[in-house]
Specification:
The complex is a heterodimer of chains A (179) and B (120). Chain A is an alpha+beta fold and 179 residues long. Chain A is 36% helix and 21% strand. A five-stranded antiparallel β-sheet of chain A has the order 1-2-3-5-4, with helices on one face. In chain A, a hairpin with a 3-residue loop joins strand 2 (103-109) and strand 3. The longest helix of chain B is centred in the middle third of the chain and has 16 residues, at 61-76. Classes of the chains: A alpha+beta (179), B alpha/beta (120).
């Protein structure tokens, strides 16, 4: 409402609209959020070529970079599954197995968390509609046996963030360190 | 390059059950061999199929889809599917996907075979 009041005071009472009015809205990060964003330290970044099976390379490289951090076996397994599934999705749906534009991965840490950022070139593309997997429907042949990827990722992470622009899609997998 | 373990599977009859010993990585590359193995199992017409995951190092969403497909085929013929040798992480995956509600999970082959012997 405030922006409309500002527009009214700018134009005055006798204005005539001759075309569409575009009201750009600039959102400022809350100061606390900005502070949080600054806390991430980049540990490593690398790229993975788009090819079936290469998600295992991504998974293994992330594990190698995270060695030495206080991460339990079970958390490592969750990270591995989430990274592999997200990378598979990026190669298949985001990059469509292009020979150019590899999947980009960044490994970041903060005081109490680990973030894996996976970037593909799927920005601006429509992605397959997400269907919540239903095991009964799958066993009855009413739903494809596939479609577990995003469900697995959501089940493995503590927080999942997705950003897109016209070129890129960025998925951030966030895991809280235990203890 | 991450060390990979190509998928392989062996079929063996064990009493009333037929066991598929799975080895390596259960992903899209496992599809052909797993379908072949299931076809071999069908020749025995067993009431119970055991899946041995003791030597499985990796399973992804495509691998889960393969297991769902196998389970669906078995259920059409009223066959039970038991699983053993799952790591803690694989047990978690079987629980969150709810596969564990449709396949009995055992810690080892002996316990799975004991239940298979009592079935049917």
């Amino acid at each position: 409402m405030a922006i409309l009041q500002e527009l009214a005071s700018f134009t005055g009472p006798d204005w005539e609209q001759v075309g569409a009015v575009t009201l750009p809205v600039i959102e400022r990060l809350h100061q606390a959020e900005a502070k949080m964003a600054e806390k991430w330290e980049r540990l490593a970044e690398f790229t993975i070529a788009n090819a079936p099976g290469n998600e295992r390379r991504a998974m293994q490289q992330v594990v190698n970079y995270l060695r030495g951090l206080p991460i339990s076996t079970s958390l490592f397994e969750r990270i591995k599954t989430a990274v592999a599934e997200t990378t598979m999705n990026a190669m298949e749906h985001g990059n469509e197995y292009s020979t150019e534009n590899p999947v980009e991965l960044q490994v970041l840490t903060s005081e109490d968390s680990v973030m894996i950022r996976v970037t593909d070139h799927g920005g601006g593309k429509s992605l397959p509609e997400y269907v919540q997997p239903d095991i009964e429907a799958k066993l009855e042949g009413l739903q494809s046996p596939r479609g577990w990827g995003l469900f697995l990722v959501q089940s493995m992470v503590d927080e999942l963030r997705v950003q897109t622009d016209q070129t890129h899609r960025i998925v951030e997998l966030i895991f809280r360190l235990e203890g | 390059m991450a060390k990979t373990q190509p998928f392989s599977a062996q079929v063996r009859q064990t009493g009333k059950a037929v066991t598929i010993d799975l080895h390596g990585e259960v992903d899209s590359f496992a599809s052909d061999r797993l379908h072949e193995a299931y076809a071999e199992v069908e020749q025995f017409n067993p009431p119970v199929i055991l899946l041995d995951f003791s030597d499985v190092s990796y399973i992804n969403s495509t691998g889960i889809a393969l297991i769902v497909g196998l389970l669906a085929q078995a259920r059409k013929l009223q066959r039970k599917v038991y699983v053993y040798g799952l790591s803690d992480h694989f047990i978690t995956i079987f629980q969150i996907t709810r596969l564990a509600e449709f396949m009995s999970i055992y810690p080892n082959e002996d316990s799975a075979l004991a239940d298979a012997a009592a079935f049917g």
